[in-house]
Amino acid sequence: xxxxxxxxxxxxIGGTKGSFPASCCTKLHFTDRSQPFGVALFDHEAHLDxxxxxxxxxxxxxxKQINSEWFVGMCGSSIGMFPASFLDVVNAIPPTPPPEExxxxxxxxxxx
Length: 112
What we know:
single chain, mainly beta, 3-stranded antiparallel β-sheet
């Protein structure tokens, strides 16, 4: 975002650019920009115990992408899953590399 002066900023979210009052935002300070995270586009109220509640504008750190429609993330001290469509991903979760030809893949029951 850019400072326009007189308490206004210019920025973009989800591909839409515009100006907004500085009083409507909070400056975030990141210590690790490589950590996957996003900004909530909408409020989300958890309906199940394993879902995450948050407000529009909250920063959510991503821990796992379940599928194309759901993430697991952390907001404040709460962890849970939430719809991917509620998030503007700033730094995506890196893709998991495919197994190498000689990698041994075992299920949990085969360890014992």
